[in-house]
Structures are given as C-alpha cells and as structure tokens.
Amino acid sequence: MTTTHSAPETELSELDSARAAFRAELIDVGLLVPSSIPGLYGRSGEFEDIIDFIDSRVVAAGEAEHGYRAKRFRFAPVFPREAFERTDYIASFPNLTGAINTFEGDNKAHAALLAERSDGKDWDHFLHSAGTMLVSAACHPSYSMLTGTLPAEGALMDIYGFCFRHEPAVDPARMQAFRMHEFVRVGTPDEAIEHRERWVPRGLQVLADLGLEAQAVIANDPFFGRAGRMLAANQRNENLKTELVVKLYGDLDDGTAVVSCNCHRDHFGHTFDIATVGGEPAHSACVGFGMERIALAMLRTHGLDRSAWPAALRP
Known about the structure:
It comes from Rhodococcoides yunnanense. This is Amino acid--[acyl-carrier-protein] ligase. The protein contains 9 helices and 14 strands. By secondary structure, it is α+β, with helices and mostly antiparallel strands. The strands form 4 sheets. A 7-stranded mixed β-sheet has the order 3-8-9-14-12-11-10. The longest helix is centred in the N-terminal third of the chain and has 22 residues.
C-alpha cells in the first residue's frame, strides 16, 4: 500500500508566497500586465521578444529533427464544438473547458437583458451556445482535417497557437491563456512512439541551450473525478506522458512542466476516423513547448534584466 503525504502547511504557504512574489516582480517591471481575472495577463513587447527568441530555437530544433517535412498550421483560438466533442476533452477535463456563448435574441429579449443588467442581475441566461469552443490543446483543431486515410508517410505537423484552460491561480506559470508550439505525428504505432521518444532528449537540449536546468519525468494529465484517478494511473504506468520540468522555486516544489511529450495511442484515430494505409486506426503523438512557461523559467533563472543575460541569449 502506498501512502501519499501532503506537504506541511508551512511549505505550501512558503511556495505560494514565492509564486506571488515572482508574479509581483513581473508586474512591477512591466513584463506582465495583470487583469481582474487571476491567471489572465497582457504581455509587454519585451516579454514577446523573449517568446520570439524561444520560438526561433524551437523552430530550429524542429528543422534539425524533421528537416522541412513538417507542414505548418496555425489555427484560431476557437474551433467548432463538433470537433471539440470528438476530442473527448469534456469527459476528462470538464473543469478546464471554455465554451463560447453569444446573444441571438430579438429587440425584446435585448431590452430584457439590459433591464436585468441595470438591476445588477445575472444576464448570462440570455446567451446561448455559439457552436464554438476555446482551444484547450494546440493540436486539437488539426485532427478533423485528417479524417480518412493518411498518406503512406502519415502526417507530421508544426502547430503553434493560443490555448485556454480554466485554472485561475496566483502562480504566473499557470496562465488561463497561453501558447503552445507543438510537433505532431500521426501514423503507425511505431511512428508515434518514436516521435515522442526522439523529442524527449531534443527538448532537453533546447532547454539546455536556453540556459535552463531541466529533467524528464514520467507524468500524467490532471484527469477529473474518481474515474480520472484510474486514467492518470494508467497513463503513468504505460509511460504515455513525459514532462520536461524546471524548478522555478528551488526545493519548494517538484518543478514546473515547460515541455510535454505525449503518446495518444489510437484515441484521435478512433474519434476522428483517421486510418493508416493499412486500414488500422492511426496513432498519434505530440511534443508541446509551453512558450510562456519557458519564458518565465528564463526570467527566473537569468533575472528580469535581459541586458544582464548571457550574450548567447540576447538577440
């Protein structure tokens, strides 16, 4: 029997204090712009320069790994609800999901909405589904375009875009809206597994080149509910998810995942009806670089003054 020990309350308090202090520093120097919603920020031009620099290294790693075979795709931060349903994300992560609602009523309904708004009442019930969802993983919008039979070489995609997850927190590394740069492989089981395994050391090298100390750890997604605990255990036992983590707060926590390398097996092959030339459901794997988290790791490691960073890390 395995017993999980919770960290002492003083340690949790110290960790939260460290996170809050880092957040305050980022805001004070103008790198992040706070909003009234926890975890939702604007970014300064300097912060975006860091993101662009990181992305140049990620792109170079992709070209070194795949040549120029990966097809580039950039999707909107919203996609059809029908495609979202097929990802099955709502079954595993309902608490992280974001749906788009809008007003579709007539003048009478609008007047009623305004009257309730003037009275300080909740007017959300006047809004209805727009048929779109916020993208939770950058690769999700890509699978619907692969429905059918893949070419003999399968599919290899370079995808970059904003993602949303409802995780309000004081930790600046846990943003509600953030960017992922992913390399996605869809094909045979062996091709998917090889993709994930090859990217673990390459991802570590990208982080090392950025001056970050990272380690690869077997991990699991934060599946929701009682059944989710079993899914998480299976994911760890079958080694389907590897995270590259950096310790932003020293020994106060186990580290922050900045890169995620995942095998989905034939999940998306089944739900999106994607088949290999052999007629079997396609397997998929992705590696995702968390752009904001890597930027924060660099700021935490090298300091908030970029002019004092190592020369190799200053464009």
